[in-house]
Amino acid sequence: MSAPSGSPHATAGARTPPRPGVAVAPAALASSGPAPARQNGPAQSQMQVPSGHGLHHQNYVAPSGPYSLEPGKLASSLPDGQCNDYYSGLYTLPAQKVATPGAASHTGAQQVYCGGPPAPPLLGTLPGPVPGATVAASHMHTSASQPYPSFVNYYSSPTIYTASSSAASQGFPATCHYGVSAVSNAVHPSVSYSSLPPGDPYTQVFTSQSALATGPGRKGSFPGQNAAPSRPSALAAPLPPQHLQQQSLAGYSALSWSVPGLPPTQDKLIRNHSGPLASASSSPANPVADSLAGPSMQNAPPPRSSPVVSTALPGALSTRVLPAGKHPGELVALGAQPQELPPQKGMQYGDYVNNQASSAPTPLSSASDDEEEEEDEEAGVDSSSTTSSASPVPNSYDVLEGGGYPDMHSSSASSPAPDPVPEPQPVPTPTAPQSAKVAKPFGHSYPALQPGYQNAAAPPTSGVQPGAVPYAAFQQYPQQYPGVNQLSSSLGGLSLQSSPQPESLRPVNLTQEKDVLPPTPIWAPVPNLNLDLKKLNCSPDSFRCTLTNIPQTQALLNKAKLPLGLLLHPFRDLTQLPVITSNIIVRCRSCRTYINPFVSFIDQRRWKCNLCYRVNDVPEEFMYNPLTRSYGEPHKRPEVQNSTVEFIASSDYMLRPPQAAVYLFVLDVSHNAVEAGYLTVLCQSLLENLDKLPGDSRTRIGFMTFDSTIHFYNLQEGLSQPQMLIVSDIDDVFLPTPDGLLVNLYESKELIKVLLNALPSGRVSVFQTQLPSLGAGLLQSREDPNQRSSTKVVQHLGPATDFYKKLALDCSGQQTAMDLFLLSSQYSDLASLACMSKYSAGCIYYYPSFHCTHNPSQAEKLQKDLKRYLTRKIGFEAVMRIRCTKGLSMHTFHGNFFVRSTDLLSLANINPDAGFAVQLSIEESLTDTSLVCFQTALLYTSSKGERRIRVHTLCLPVVSSLAEVYAGVDVQAAICLLANMAVDRSVSSSLSDARDALVNAVVDSLSAYGSAVSNFQHSGLIAPASLKLFPLYVLALLKQKAFRTGTSTRLDDRVYAMCQIKSQPLVHLMKMIHPNLYRIDRLTDEGAIHVSDRVVPQPPLQKLSAERLTREGAFLMDCGSVFYIWIGKSCDNNFIEDVLGYPNFASIPQKMTYLPDLDTLSSERTRSFVAWLRDSRPLSPVLHVVKDESPAKAEFFQHLVEDRTEAAFSYYEFLVHVQRHICK
Amino acid sequence: MDRTRQKKKKKKIYIYIYIYIYIYHTKAFTFAAFCSMQALLLTAALIFFAIWHILAFDELKTDYKNPIDQCNTLNPLVLSEYLIHAFFCTMFLYAAKWLTLGLNMPLLAYHIWRYISRPVMSGPGLYDPTTIMNADILAYCQKEGCS
User: Fold this and answer.
1) For position B22, what pLDDT does the model report?
2) DSSP labels, A844-894
3) What confidence category does residue A329 fall into, taking pLDDT thresholds of 50, 70 and 90?
4) Which residues are within 8 A (CB) of A749 and not within 5 positions of it... i.e. 6 or more apart?
5) In 3-state terms, what secondary structure has residue A712?
6) Average pLDDT of the residues in A481-487
7) Which end of chain A is least crowded, N or C, by CB within 10 Å?
8) pLDDT per residue as tens digits for the range A981-1012
9) What are the structural domain ranges in chain A?
């Protein structure tokens, strides 16, 4: 902890003054030079975080010697050289502290805030009784009084908001979050401003609450502040305990905080406010400023709001506020952003969100909704889409992270995993203590600030502070608290033994461990980076690496026997996404990397690329930060604050003007198809969603049908009814009316090629119900039903002809994707047909034995899938490039696309449900670097005709020891990558080869671990805790439809499973491989989470074994695309009656696919749980109620992967099998 | 199989050059000499093909060319290269040049194996644009030219 403070300090001090202004002014646009910005800045800062900064300066410089030191410490503490500049520059942190000191009492605090240089005037206003409103108002006032009238608007809006929020406690928290995030941004340029920092503060607050509580004076005062900013209610009843959180009070978290740790909260709140304000101000500014600011502004706001947003309130509130108040004009842009953003927040700021959620989960949801609506209204354009899209995602997030396990959430932000991340939690706690200690010197306020500070500053702070002379207490802290972790992490991304993750390396004897599966969902491990980088890092939902500690050399990787690769979900629906509109997109001159949070600024004018290490100039324009309206702080630009950003690209990034969206539906109307009756389902879905098809006014649509001839439909304007034109010469298809119709497809695809020439860019949806039997693409039935259960050779996994591949490549060349819907009851050679989608970046849907009336669950599934399919976002003419630090290289790509170059994927369409995997190899030793970065840039044309680039950047540490490599294994990512590799292997070699390879993967990695790392020579099978699920998942994979043998599996089913493995994002794929099993006949509200007014119970995960199925119980299995509810024979009749609506077990029908809407508590719980699970995925799964001893139970039991089947091992047998191999 | 695998590692160019030199030294005015003359010219062409391949894959690797275009240009060459080689192997057979034939057999066998195990495609050729950029395959193809 005790980092030498020294010189850095001075620099920090020097920088600080400018920063405050910068940080404060969120609005980038302001044309006013730096000077004006400054003025504004102070004012704003007073109001908001920025003000804090400003104050800091003063405080720092004058009053608190220690403080000043801190910055220096911070700088020094910066573990990574890269970060140093940032931090020092960034470290506005002091501001927070500053604010705190000031805030002895509420008024004091406010005053302090204001008190900062600029504040005084504000203070005067502030003193008013109403803390929240007044504060905001005062802020606004100040801002108003200052040069920027526009600000006033912002502020006012925020204030209003706050006021409203006060009414709705929920809203309040949101604001807080906002503020926090904003603060963090402002304060710590290096830190991504978004959610993380805020989240941290929260968490800290929580943890620290107790500690903080000690500082009574503060609390008292702060509460006032909190109340003032957020809500009167809070003030009135500051005490609302955490319980409130559970309740619907979003705000409560803030409130609760305020009570114990009010000081911190207050700070946060204040910050938040300031943040929001700043953002708001910025946003207004944006409007003012025509050009750059707009996007940047947007960016800024979204982060705050976004995080939470849909579900989470805090974010939402802030966002709303922003848009409404300031950006009426901007809204448009925002609108676009929001949609995207929502998901993002969830992703990136999952942690943040979580924290928030944890703090005030319930409140958020309930309150947020209302607020959201309000926001939406305000936002106008953006709102509807944004909220709607956003809400689902965030909800899930909240639920996931925040809901069930508050502690975990708070502690381990994004990826709390089973082993609660040691680092995060420790951090909060330590900080709290620190704050307390610190508080002594500074008075009450200080502690409060500190938490915020810590949050914002995170690692650096902690490191620095300890170092600070003034606080003797600090030293103690580290010892007492897990602070060590913090330190170590802060000191070096890679810190080793200091506090590695003992948990992930803890040896586990698999043969003796009965329950390897944790009862809670498994989260991605958090890379062992310092906290700043952690906060900045890309969300694991968008970007994951199989090894979160990258081995230094290929030799080390080979020793570890683990796959190295990335799993991407680049176009995920995001709740929050900073969108940047800028004339220049700053990129490295040699490797073309986009500037990202992990670059280092050598000085104000130069930055060093983190992928190729080239030193680049900072363009003049980039020196100006539209977000804060300051000049000379390029490291505070949103591009450098967020690891996921989206740029609006200029015409340099397009080969031709953005094309209109074109949708062509090619429908099978053969006898078989008519019999199955899918057309009615399709037509209904189309009619319902026709208006929701993404696209602008130029969107075109067309239809073709085919049986043994091709039918074109002339839909030209002016015709009283569509004309059907039949072309019977399918070997030489021509377009009967090139203008009036859209196009076609057919089993003979020659046609499509012709059509494609008429299609600018777009999507072709092919509905096929049987094997193509005519024309150029005809296929023969290759399946031998007698071999379905063969244990030996599975043939025909590859295509029979390259016709469809060529077709796909032609389509891809025309920027058209083909999506295949196969609704076939017989063998249709999906292996060949799927090629048309695989290489044109389309997607594949398969509904075996589809029949409208005989198989209603499939019809329902088709209907739901179509709804999602027709209305989801879509990007056209996309290319995706993946870059990585020099020394690493891309090896193989998995997914649906065409590989254009070694690192370039050509995607005719990109949709939010597409996932990709990349295998990596280490070509050069990485000894001279401690961090590696990966960047994916997805360039696409939005359905609105905008060219956009979405950039994700992931930063990971490099390690040199085998133990650390094992400590950082992300077992889920590894298993998904292995599954992808196994699919390739089965197609190129054979299925048995692929199965052997999977088993070998387990054997090799565990034996390598046993011989190299583990010191224990047990008789059992030893695995590190990070890999303890590895054998289980591999076993599940071996029993998956794609790879199983011995069980009767239709070839098409198998091939479809393989297609899904290749194209599904990780979250969905994991459910496919290893379903989640819950017991649902005894749902309680214990640990339940609250999502949009519903209470969602969180039953523990059960292991997939029949031993867990008791006859008295009812179980829900979540297989991703299917839900099974298994009802035991002697299941409680009350449950059956309350939930299923039947008097007893015997009266339950064999085929039941829905849960009746019964007005009983258990029914409500069950339904809300099922609905919650459904909301967490894009494709709505079908529900099957399976009675024990019904024929359908085989379907259910095949997913119990831990059990023995005729052809496959049980889990224990598998372990023994692996162990035998290891011993050989 | 083992022999062909070993052959793989050898540089194809060297093989062709060796054949060239060998033929050059054994020319005489018989049918065998005629074969040798023929083979001499053809081997020069094969060397050219091999170099062409190496360059082409290098272009591919450096993102200079689109894999579809590259495959379209390379695929016809592959079959002609194999056919030319098979052709003068046959010539040697008729000329009863057993030693020369024996030296060429492993390469011929490798060519046959390679062509049989090619990906599913309707036209002639070996290279599939959708898999060519796979690092393994690209490295293999590149090595095949010179290794």
Assistant:
1) 76
2) EEE-TT--TTT-HHHHHHHHHHHHHHHHS--EEEEEEEEEE-TTEEEEEEE
3) very low
4) A775, A776, A777, A803, A804, A807, A836
5) strand
6) 36
7) C
8) 999 999 888 888 899 999 999 999 888 888 87
9) 507-524+970-1074+1211-1223, 525-655+874-969, 662-776+797-871, 1076-1200
Residue B6 near chain A (CB below 8 Å): no
| Chain B nearest CA to A800, separation (Å) | 7
Spell A309-345 as b/e; 16+ CB within 10 A means b.
bbbbbbbbbbbbbbbbbbbbebbbbbbbbbbbbbbbb
Q: Is pLDDT of B106 > 70?
A: yes
Nearest by CB to residue B133, choosing from A800, A889, A901, is A901
Q: Is the pLDDT of residue A452 over 70?
A: no
Which residue bears the tokens 């819950």? A1078
ipTM of the complex: 0.77
Strand partners, A262: none
Bridging pattern class, strands A723-727 and A710-714:
antiparallel
Question: What would the pLDDT profile of A1151-1175 be if each residue is shown by its tens digit?
Answer: 788 888 888 888 888 888 888 888 8
Class of domain A662-776+797-871: alpha beta
Cβ of B130 within 8 Å of Cβ of A892? The answer is: no
The verdict on a CB contact (< 8 Å) between A803 and B122 is yes
Say yes or no for a CB contact (<8 Å) between A899 and B134. yes
Distance CA A565, CA A934 (A): 11
Lowest mean pLDDT across A339-348, A872-881, B77-86 = A339-348
The answer to whether A835 touches A772, Cβ cutoff 8 Å, is no
DSSP letter assigned to residue A243: H
Q: pLDDT digit string (tens) for A188-229?
A: 333 333 333 333 333 333 333 333 333 333 333 333 333 333
Q: What is the pLDDT of residues A714-752, one digit of tens each?
A: 666 555 555 667 776 655 555 555 444 443 333 333 443
* Residues of chain A contacting B121 with CB distance shorter than 8 Å: 802
The answer to whether B120 contacts A800, with C-beta atoms less than 8 Å apart, is yes
Chain B positions in Cβ-Cβ contact with residue A901 (cut-off 8 Å): 60, 63, 67, 133
Question: What does the CA dihedral A257, A262, A268, A271 come to, rounded to 10 degrees?
Answer: 140
A777 phi, psi to nearest 5 deg: -100, 25
Which residues of chain A are within 8 Å of residue B136 when distances are taken between CB atoms?
Answer: 891-892
**What CATH number was assigned to the domain covering residues A1076-1200?**
3.40.20.10
Indicate the residue of B61, B128, B129 with minimum beta-carbon distance to A902: B61
Choice among A19-28, A652-661, A959-968 with the minimum mean pLDDT = A19-28
Q: Return residues 36-75 of B near A (CB < 8 Å).
A: 60-61, 63, 66-68
Cβ-based neighbours of B118, under 8 Å, separated by 6 or more: B125, B126
The residues spanned by each domain of chain B are 37-146
CATH number of this structure's domain A507-524+970-1074+1211-1223, picked from the four choices 3.40.640.10, 2.170.130.30, 3.50.50.60, 1.20.120.730: 1.20.120.730
Strand partners, A819: A765
Measured between beta carbons, the chain B residues lying within 8 angstroms of A904 are 63
Which of A801, A838, A921 lies closest to B122 in CB terms? Answer: A801
- Tell me, what DSSP letter sits at residue A1152? B
Query: What pTM was computed for the model?
Result: 0.64
Q: Please judge whether A806 and B122 are an interchain contact, meaning their C-beta atoms are less than 8 angstroms apart.
A: yes
Of the candidate CATH numbers 3.20.170.40, 3.40.50.2000, 2.60.40.1670, 3.40.50.1820, the domain formed by A525-655+874-969 belongs to: 2.60.40.1670
Distance from CA of B117 to the nearest CA of A (A): 10
What pLDDT is attached to residue A998? 92
Asked whether the beta carbons of residue A809 and residue B61 sit closer than 8 angstroms, the reply is no
